[in-house]
Amino acid sequence: MNTGMNTDMNPAAKPLAVITGASSGIGAATARTLSALGHPLLLLARRVERIEALGLPDTLARSVDVTDAEAVAGAVREAEALYGPADLIVNNAGVMLLGEVSRQPADEWERMFDVNVRGLLHGVRAVLPGMIERGRGTVINVSSVAGRKTYANHTVYSGSKFAVHGMSESLREEVAGHGVRVVTIAPGAVETELLSHTTDEVVKADYQAFKDSIEVLAPEDVAAAIGFAYQQPQRVTLRELVLAATAQVA
């Protein structure tokens, strides 16, 4: 997978894209989409064997927990030494632990904010100084419809995703003058492993029943939206894309 190609040596080569949470679901689908477009990739996830199984060319796979800022930054430095500067990061890593606040373990709240908020910031910090220096780059933050509106049993998860929306918009204001784009992708229900993290079996069963009642989004649908946003001219920022299954009412 790792060919050692350096984009500085090949002006026609596509720039490096970084994807967190790349071992499954939206992350893996986005990796396939961007690889098909010719981009070398840095793919980060705890389950590195799942990344390697994708078999994508010009790809550096690293087992990294996004809550570890040094590990994220170190992997980015390693990939940039191979492939040139990162022009895109897709902050996709996230956990969804649904439950009622009155009964949900507090460590689940902490895990969601650690991954969904602090982990996202670690990804941003790892690439942003270089993007600002070069005067171009794109930060794509994968949030959720639950970051725009509320749902039962989503209180803390929604809070973490509302934070993603707020941070993304404020970050855009900080970096727009430096030629850096910030995009928020807000999907509705998607057929991924995200629900499996929920430990409340009653809540999990209710949400699964909802998913089974409609044709939810496929990870490839979200990956296509990410690719579409990134392929716009650098002078164009699609600030927020909200997508959901047509049958998803709320």
From TrEMBL:
Keywords: Oxidoreductase
One Gene Ontology molecular-function label: oxidoreductase activity
EC code(s) of this entry: 1.-.-.-
Xref: InterPro entries: NAD(P)-bd_dom_sf, Sc_DH/Rdtase_CS, SDR_fam
Broad enzyme group: oxidoreductase
Pfam families linked: adh_short
Key word Calcium present: no
Signal peptide: none
PROSITE patterns named in the record: ADH_SHORT
Family: Belongs to the short-chain dehydrogenases/reductases (SDR) family.
Protein name (database record): SDR family oxidoreductase
